Amino acid sequence: MKAVIPAAGLGTRFLPATKAMPKEMLPVVDKPAIQYVVEEAVSAGIDDILVIIGRNKNAISDHFDAVPELEGRLAQKGDRGRLERVMRSSDLADIHFVRQGEPKGLGHAVLRARTHVGDSSFAVLLGDDLIDERDPLLPEMIAMHERTGAAVVALMEVDSASIHQYGAAAVEPVDGDGVLKVTGLVEKPAPGEAPSNLAVIGRYVLPASVFGVLERTPPGRGGEIQLTDALQELAADPSGPGVVGVVFGGRRYDTGDRVDYIKAIVQLAVDRADLGAELRPWLKQFAEGL
Fold first, then answer.
1. How far is 203 from 151, CA to CA, in rounded Å?
2. pLDDT one-digit tens code per residue, 31-67
3. How many domains would you assign to the chain?
């Protein structure tokens, strides 16, 4: 199975930081956000990854390339710890890049992967959502797809006041713990119109048939081709395997929002063996002074 990581967004919520730097390259502690996503795919057994990029995104491909000058300097200094961390990003997987061209939406970005993916099922991982490595989600989704043939989406319970920020799923229970049949999807529903408080978060395992659906999917909300609309068609097809949802109850970090991005850095840093011992007492002292 291959993985697709759409990374062509403009990152307007983080301007001016993202004026010249891709939002996917914003550091989360000491790694860019997109490296966490690539590492998640690799941990799930995927070693062929396609990143969909746009203009001014060359820093992403540079990050996953070797840097002989830097590596040589670190080797000369005997700094093996930093050398291993630098080399890890270029040794993670077989990473490919294709440009989206015009930013026509997530569905259009996924469609750009068709030539690379071919007729096989594939995973889609959005770079805004970081899943904690201690709470693996993707292997369960892959196993569910292999068992059912259905498109699999990751769902998470969110506060009803926040559901308008996500795609919301209408669901029916099926056998299996935490697994639900998705009967409908609404992209960013208006207040009071969400079919549930189950939000679609940025992990999907999709059959290759989704490409044919995306080709005929007209622009939807925001004038963009929405992946949600294509999944809605798959869910409504009585002759197909449909769409199922895996409910995720683990640790997830939203780096697409400024406040949640800062929270993600703090949460991950305090759990680090090399940072937590020094950071926790300072955080307590800082909080007491507020």
1. 11
2. 999 999 999 999 999 999 999 998 778 899 999 988 8
3. 2
